[in-house]
Amino acid sequence: QVQLVESGGGLVQAGGSLRLSCVVSGLIRSIDAANWYRQAPGKQRELVATITSGGITNYADSVKGRFTISLENAKNTLYLQMNSLKPEDTAVYSCNVQGRRLFAGNFASWGQGTQVTVSS
Predict the structure, then answer these.
(1) How many whole angstroms separate alpha carbon 68 and alpha carbon 78?
(2) What is the spatial distance between Cα 90 and Cα 109, in angstroms, rounded to a whole number?
(3) Residues 81-91: pLDDT tens digits?
(4) Rounded distance, CA 111 to CA 93, Å?
(5) N or C: which end of the chain has fewer CB within 10 A?
(6) Across the chain, which distance is largest between two alpha carbons, in Å?
(7) Beta bridge pairs of residue 57
């Protein structure tokens, strides 16, 4: 029932920036934690960044200092600001959000993924 819609992917040159968005829709009481994953062709899905409702963040070593995850609860929107992009950042990026439904129960949903391509 809870749906995630991503946007913001595209093609950029190395050193450039992109901002990914993930809008959570449905009857949601709260978002407790959210994550950004990425998967390159032939590679396993990799956890890139996490954030809790309290604002605690964690990042993969490969993106520390370059990526910033944030959560705007009023809009039920998750963001990933990506700066100083490198070719190795090329992947399909997907959001994953866990929380509580409005009336009862929890949810854990995935977005459809958005392609990020970084050229040299």
Answers:
(1) 11
(2) 23
(3) 999 999 999 99
(4) 9
(5) C
(6) 49
(7) 51
